[in-house]
Amino acid sequence: MRAVVVARYGGALELMERPLPRPAPNEVLLRVRASGLCSTDLHLLQGRMPLGGLPRIVGHEIAGEIVQVGAATRDWKIGDRAVVAIDVVCGKCRHCLTGETQRCTAMLRIGFERDGGHAEYVAVPASNLVVIPRELADDAAAILPDAVACMYHSLICQGKVGVGQKVLILGVGGLGIHGVQIARIAGADVLATSRRAERLKIAEQFGALPVNPATQSLKEIVAEFTRGEGVDVVVDNIGTRASVREGLALLRPGGKFLVIAYLDESFEIPSLPLFKTEQEIIGCRGSTKQDLTQVVQLVQSGRLQPIVGARYPLAEIGAAVARLERGDLIGRIVLTCS
Questions:
Q1: Which end of the chain has fewer CB atoms < 10 Å from its terminal CB, N or C?
Q2: Domains by residue range for the chain, with CATH
Q3: What confidence tens digit (pLDDT) does each residue in 299-310 have?
């Protein structure tokens, strides 16, 4: 089968032939219909997170159709459509037993330590599947596990965003545009930043107050937006030292700073203001199967809209990566595999 792989760190994502995977007894074999292309795939290519043995098939946003069912698999059948939760967890550690599966100590992630979905087929545990509603297209479904559920996990589970809160989303790209929607669904008022007018326009359509930091004073707008108090939650989708400094400076005492992006390897935090104001800096990684299930339900209800920015056939991975690096689109890039 054809698959997109990391063959060596520091190279390029390559299309090559790989063996057809065989599902274990508790797994299914999916024919991949769509697979979301994420900036994390490029971080993996650079070796920022180890993938184990290479070549590794990447791709952690997967929607497909079951074509084979493992001998011990129940409740799923050939022809069922499903989206795939990313984390394969042990179910036994203290984190799994308390529902915090995103912190599982024995986790193997699909598209990271396990082969992923930038391929014609992928084998995944049946326990990671969530059914795709009949009315939801494959490409829209594919981006739910990360581009959408990651924002849900960050805002709702980590940030505890709720009615009447003021939320600042730094960076309205493939993640941020879904963050705007989720924060608004939770009842928050939202500021969203971008240097691209087209991104700000769609953020405004979803209920955010748009800000272009290249031409507007974010500090002044936040002061007016919050009556000088600072925002309750900052969502950092940029991940630079500058974005961290700026976000913390705009946060109210006791507010939450959600670390989602990690473009820079490290950042500095002024300790005295953090001590005096009791602000919280919270790491946010991925999503759980429960998060994904909640997101699917929100999409099915019509309250949440997954945004696909562009579609490329699997064979055009080079063009897709170039488009991702240009950053000239709204929403997620999806590789189509059928």
A1: C
A2: 2-143+306-336 (3.90.180.10), 148-283 (3.40.50.720)
A3: 999 999 999 999
